[in-house]
Amino acid sequence: MPTEHIFDMAVIGGGVNGCGIARDGAGRGLDVVLCEQGDLAQGTSSASTKLIHGGLRYLEHYDFALVRKALIEREVLLSAAPHIIHPLRFVLPHHKALRPAWLLRLGLFIYDHLGGRKILPGTEVLDLTQGEIGAPLLDVFRKGFEYSDCWVDDARLVVLNAMDARDKGAEILVRSKCVSAHREAGLWSVIIEDVDTGQRRELLAKTLVNAAGPWVEHVIESMPAVHRERKHIRLVRGSHIVVPRLFDHDRAYIFQNQDGRIFFAIPYENAFTLIGTTDEDHQGDLGDIAISDDEVRYLCAAAKGYFHQAPNVEDVVWSYSGVRPLYDDGASAAHTATRDFVLKLDEGSGGGEAPLLNIFGGKITTYRKLAEAVLTKLAPSLPKLDACWTQTAPLPGGDFPVGGVDDLSLAIQQKHPFINSNWAGRLAGAYGTRVWQVLGAAKNLDNLGEMFGATLSEAEVIYLFEHEWARTADDILWRRSKLGLRLSKHAKTRLSDWMRRYRAEKQSAAE
Fold first, then answer.
1. 133 and 250 housed in the same domain
2. Which of 17, 306, 418, 476 gets the most CB atoms within 10 Å of its CB?
3. Is the bond leading into 277 cis (omega within 30 degrees of zero)?
4. Residue 57 maps to a domain
5. Burial 88-106 (b: 16+ CB within 10 A, else e)
């Protein structure tokens, strides 16, 4: 139904780029609306390798500008969200048949010094014949290097950006699909449809940002009178497998593969190891993205080239895949295509019309810089735009020092003695200082309501529904958390039934 309210900026896409743009814009005084056809981070942004990193392998492609930008962002993001981002040391074994040791050392020297590192420790040379770090590896690997990057809960990073955008006045509309958009009287008219009810709503905006990720060109094609250049997007599928823990220490591994690619083996959710990623051009349906049997075999075979106790196909307990919307730079292989972002501004065939900004490419580490670049690009159409602000601002729950998660975990246990250390650690690492809103004034376990298993309480589920847009069991089990790895099938069904009832009650009360 038409409305006379005019937004400064409408954003299509609830991934990390879209939510980062909405946050940045709202914090600069703009009236912002964002629509997402599914759940926040339901696509590519929850299917990453969970790293905030400079991209060591990009040095080999001489992409120094991207690496420097990403390296600087590592510590900016670490300081902004120390609950969901933490330092991680990576072990790179020297493979004599592949890159020479001097080349690895040179690359790591550049990596250490290119981005103005202040918090993270630098590279060390390792003797892999001694100690626990080399023990899981085949005996042929005797020398290695250890360097720093960061781990991130990618889906929660998206949600925190959306929360901050909302706290600063943005309207965040999940499960709201953009069905059409066209220019009208100097504005954008965007029609969105509630995917649950089918109800439609018109949004009027001065500017429109297409941050739809893999669907970016689908959105463009649905718009009349929009300039269409050659195909800009290259869809590359990255897949990961999760297996029972392969090693007991807290380091991750980065391995070189015989085909020139690299892959990671990362400690995951305490009891597992995450292995990935693949790089395959994706040709299929964007609504049905899944790892192929060949990709599973590829990752298991790659791991067998390094580990004594490498996983077999039947050891995989979970897998996930995401399609990266990379900018098509003409690279011959998927794994060599640029990961940097490209912004394309459309102001109509004659110029001077309501602007549309299409986003191609990008990586999770540089999403904040992408948001700044978007606002800079649109500034001529937004004359009241305030100055950049996100570089020193914490994300929700991140207003405590780097390395302070353990102290917060202890504080949770002191205030709520019925919560054990593992449970408190999970809550601190997910919510940071917002954990007090999750737990409220609970004095005992009963005060948290029904327990669904794996420390998931009714109180936490209600918080996620009321404050983080969670509407289904999958939203909670695979994006707001990874508790889906631990809950039984029966517990998942019980949670799903509970959420359907709760949602129905909320809808009934609102009518």
1. yes
2. 17
3. yes
4. no
5. bbbbbbbbeeeeeeeebee
Same domain, 241 and 375: no
Distance CA 451, CA 497 (A): 14
Q: What's the token pair of residue 362?
A: 């990008």
- What is the C-alpha separation between 207 and 382, in angstroms, rounded? 8
Query: Number of structural domains, the chain?
Result: 3
Close Cβ partners of 287 (under 8 Å, ≥ 6 residues apart): none
The CATH number that applies at residue 344 is: 3.50.50.60
Strand 176-184 versus strand 187-194 pairing type: antiparallel
Is the domain of 477 the same as that of 498? yes
Report how far Cα 151 is from the mean position of its chain's Cα atoms: 11
Q: Same domain, yes or no, for 119 and 242?
A: yes
Last residue of a domain, one of 297, 327, 357: 327
Tokens representing 157 are: 């990073």
Q: Where are the beta strands (DSSP E) in 165-199?
A: 171-173, 176-184, 187-194
Q: How far apart are CA 324 and CA 482, in angstroms?
A: 21
Residues 8, 11, 15, 19: what is their CA dihedral angle, to the nearest 10 degrees? 10
Residue 120, domain member (yes or no): yes
Rounded to whole angstroms, the maximal C-alpha distance in the chain is: 71
260: alpha, beta or left? (left if phi > 0; alpha if psi -120 to 50): left
Q: Which amino acid is at 420?
A: N
User: Between the CA of residue 61 and those of 97, 331, 339, what are the distances in Å?
Assistant: 20, 11, 11
Are the C-beta atoms of residues 312 and 147 closer than 8 Å to each other?
no
CA gyration radius for the chain?
Answer: 23
Same domain assignment for residues 34 and 104: no
Task: Give strand pairing partners of 60.
Answer: none
Q: For the full predicted model, state whether its pTM sits above 0.90.
A: yes
Residues 217 and 258 in one domain: no
CATH of the domain at 486: 1.10.8.870
Contact 43, 20 (CB under 8 A): no
Domain span holding position 415: 405-510
The answer to whether residues 473 and 499 belong to one domain is yes
CA distance 59 to 107: 7
Strand partners, 126: 144
Judge contact between 301 and 241, C-beta under 8 A. Answer: no
176 touches 195 (CB < 8 A):
yes
469 in a domain, yes or no?
yes
- The terminus-to-terminus CA distance of the chain in angstroms comes to 18
Mean pLDDT by 10 residues, the chain (511 residues): 81 98 98 98 96 91 91 97 98 92 94 94 96 96 97 98 98 97 94 95 97 93 69 87 97 93 96 95 86 97 97 98 85 68 87 92 95 97 94 98 98 98 98 98 97 98 98 97 97 97 90 73
Asked whether residue 104 falls in the same domain as residue 222, the answer is: no
3 state SS of 402? coil
Strands 200-210 and 6-12: parallel
**What distance in Å separates the CA atoms of residue 211 and residue 200, rounded to the nearest whole number?**
21
